[in-house]
Design goal:
The structure is a single chain. By secondary structure, this protein is mainly α. Helices cover 65% and strands 0% of the residues. The chain has 2 domains: 13-95, no CATH class; 98-283, Hypothetical protein af1432 (Orthogonal Bundle). It is built from 16 helices and no strands. Helix 1 (5-12) packs across helix 12 (180-190), helix 6 (80-91) packs parallel to helix 8 (129-138) and helix 8 crosses helix 14 (215-234). The longest helix is centred in the middle third of the chain and has 24 residues, at 101-124. InterPro entries: HDOD, RNase_Y/CdgJ.
Length: 283
C-alpha cells in the first residue's frame, strides 16, 4: 500500500501529543551515553508517571524477585527497553481529552493486546517479547487518534458497529477518509517510531506483509493479530466477548505454525495475566 503519511496526518488535524517525559525518555534511550540515573531523573519530573511505572514494575507481569523501590533500580533490573514500554504504556491514558467508557475500552484494548502479544511471543517464540508488547500497545492507536480528533464521528462509528451494521474495517471509511490502521501508522511515523512498529500497526488486521521477504516483521504482526483476536474473544476492550471467532482458523495461527492444542491454555493465561495486572497499568 502506497500511503502518503503526511497527507493522512494533515487530514486528521487535531492530534494528541506524546507526553513530554515520554518523548524525552525515547530521546535518551537513543543516546548510548544515557545512564539509568539520568533516565530516572527524567521520569521523576512527572510524579504520576513515576508512581505508575513503579507500580507496573512491581506487578506480577514482570515477576521481580524483590520489591523495586526506586526508578533507578527499576531501570537497572528491568532494562532500558522495558522502561520504554512501561513509560509508553503508562502515558497512554494521557492521550485522551477525556476518559469515559469509550476511552476506557480503548485503553483496555491496548493494554490487553500488549500483554497478550507478549504472552504469545514468549510462549511460542514468535517474536521479541518487548517488541511484541509495544506493537500490541499501539496496534489501535489510530482509533485513539480518531476519537481524539473527531469524537462525535468516532462514537457514531462505534455505535454503528455495536448495532450490528458491520465491523470497524467495513464502516470506518463511511466516517473518515482513512482507516484507523493507516491513521495509526501515519501518526507513529510522525512520532519517529521504528519502521517495524509502523508496519505492524498498518497491517495488524490484514497481515499484508510478504512472509518470505520480511519473515521477522510478518511474525511480529501475526503475533499481534492473534493477541488481538484473543482479546476480542475474552471481551477485553469490548462491550461483549466475540464468540464467533475461531482462533484455530486464523491466518496468523496457521502461518505461525502454532500447536492448536496450546491455544486454549494461551487464552486462559492471557485472561489471568490481564486481570491480575490491569489496575497496575491504569494507575
Amino acid at each position: 500500500m502506497n500511503v502518503d503519511f503526511q497527507t493522512v496526518v494533515n487530514s486528521v488535524g487535531d492530534l494528541p501529543t506524546m507526553p513530554a517525559v515520554a518523548v524525552k525518555v525515547i530521546e535518551q534511550l537513543q543516546d548510548t551515553s544515557t545512564s539509568a540515573a539520568g533516565l530516572a531523573e527524567t521520569v521523576a519530573h512527572d510524579p504520576a508517571l513515576s508512581a505508575r511505572v513503579l507500580k507496573i514494575a512491581n506487578s506480577s507481569f514482570y515477576s521481580m524477585k524483590r520489591q523495586v523501590k526506586t526508578l533507578e533500580s527499576a531501570i537497572v533490573l528491568l532494562g532500558e527497553r522495558t522502561l520504554r514500554s512501561l513509560v509508553l504504556a503508562a502515558s497512554l491514558k494521557g492521550m485522551n481529552k477525556s476518559f469515559g467508557l469509550l476511552e476506557k475500552m480503548l485503553w483496555e484494548d491496548a493494554i490487553g493486546c500488549a500483554i497478550g502479544a507478549k504472552v504469545v511471543a514468549r510462549r511460542f517464540e514468535t517474536a521479541d517479547s518487548e517488541e511484541a508488547f509495544l506493537s500490541g500497545l499501539f496496534r489501535h492507536i489510530g482509533k485513539v487518534v480518531l476519537n481524539y480528533s473527531r469524537p462525535d464521528a468516532f462514537q457514531e462509528l462505534m455505535q454503528a458497529v455495536y448495532n450490528g451494521e458491520g465491523d470497524v474495517q467495513e464502516l470506518e471509511r463511511k466516517y473518515f477518509p482513512f482507516s484507523h490502521a493507516v491513521v495509526g501508522a501515519a501518526v507513529l511515523k510522525k512520532w519517529n517510531f521504528s519502521e517495524s512498529l509502523i508496519e505492524s500497526t498498518l497491517h495488524h488486521a490484514d497481515l499484508n506483509i510478504d512472509q518470505r521477504e520480511e519473515p521477522k516483521l510478518f511474525r511480529l504482526t501475526a503475533t499481534v493479530h492473534l493477541a488481538g483476536a484473543i482479546c476480542g474473544k475474552l471481551g477485553i476492550g469490548q462491550r461483549i466477548p466475540d464468540t464467533r471467532t475461531d482462533l484455530a482458523a486464523l491466518h496468523s495461527v496457521k502461518a505461525l505454525g502454532l500447536n492448536l492444542s496450546e491455544l486454549p491454555d494461551t487464552l486462559d493465561s492471557i485472561r489471568v495475566v490481564f486481570n491480575e495486572n490491569r489496575s497496575y497499568f491504569l494507575g
